[in-house]
TrEMBL record:
Taxonomic lineage of the native organism: Bacteria, Pseudomonadati, Pseudomonadota, Alphaproteobacteria, Hyphomicrobiales
Family, similarity comment: Belongs to the TrpF family.
Top-rank taxon, per record: Bacteria
The EC number(s) this enzyme carries: 5.3.1.24
Isomerase among keywords: yes
Organism encoding this protein: Tianweitania sediminis
Reaction(s) catalysed by this chain's protein: N-(5-phospho-beta-D-ribosyl)anthranilate = 1-(2-carboxyphenylamino)-1-deoxy-D-ribulose 5-phosphate
Domain N-(5'phosphoribosyl) anthranilate isomerase (PRAI): 3-206
Protein name: N-(5'-phosphoribosyl)anthranilate isomerase
Record has Amino-acid biosynthesis as a keyword: yes
This protein's encoding gene: trpF
Entry's Gene Ontology molecular function annotations: phosphoribosylanthranilate isomerase activity
Length: 216
């Protein structure tokens, strides 16, 4: 199972993610987020991940000029589009940059899952996240889970990562209920918003290990 630790901003937490077995490390490029990093900072941090994990640049309705800079400076392996991007926009981004795209879809009901099917054959992967609470500043990273039972019977024509409110206490249950091809976590391994914690990252990986051992 792929595991993405998202919203990293320090060397020690990038190292903890990689040592724990992260297959993806995510950097947030959204100025309103407490996890926002400058492209040069992400480029420096992601050096440690080269050859060990995929570097994911997370953006929200970013324009071409912003993406041009990110792709040039950070050289990510994948773009995560976490805004209101349409299938046409996803197609255009893939064509312009030649990079795989993971499209986030906010989920609060079955209609949202149906809407996600618009990206079949367009995005390389989906990321199911909870719909942001009313008044939230961020479209993701709010530490809120959605009703995982909505995923039962999902036509899994697209691989997806499960995200939204995951932490060491609930990840075992999440895996048992949804059997996703990937997991994505941000605020569940933080001490305070934007401040990742090495011990919480280690606990998260330990919880995944015991969940997968139980399932085997
Ligand atoms: O984390 C952020 O600040 C963020 C900002 C803008 C778009 C996406 C963001 N994070 C993504 O949100 C999900 C879930 O986060 P959490 O575990 O519930 O805190 C994760 O995919 C991040 O990539």
């Amino acid at each position: 199972m792929d595991i993405k630790i998202c919203g990293l901003s320090t060397e020690d937490t990038v190292a903890a993610a990689l040592n724990g077995g992260a297959t993806h490390v995510g950097f947030i490029f959204f100025p309103r987020s407490p996890r926002h990093v400058a492209p040069q900072q992400a480029a420096a941090l992601s050096g440690a991940a080269k050859g060990r994990a995929q570097v994911v640049a997370v953006t929200v309705d970013a324009d071409d000029a912003t993406l041009d800079t990110l792709v040039r400076v950070v050289e990510p392996d994948m773009l995560q589009l976490h805004g209101e991007e349409t299938p046409e926009r996803v197609r255009a981004v893939k064509q312009r940059f030649g990079l795989p795209v993971m499209k986030a879809q906010a989920i609060s009901n079955l209609a949202d899952l149906t809407a996600a099917q618009r990206f079949a054959g367009v995005a390389d992967r989906l990321l199911f996240d909870a719909k942001a609470p009313k008044g939230a500043v961020l479209p993701g990273g709010n530490g809120v889970a959605f009703d995982w039972t909505l995923l039962a019977g999902l036509d899994a024509s697209l691989p997806y990562m499960l995200s939204g409110g995951l932490n060491a206490s609930n990840v075992g249950d999440a895996v048992a209920r949804t059997n996703p091809s990937g997991l994505d976590i941000s605020s569940g391994v933080e001490r305070t918003p934007g401040i990742k914690d090495v011990a919480l990252i280690e606990s998260f990986f330990a919880a995944i290990r015991s969940a997968t051992q139980r399932a085997a």
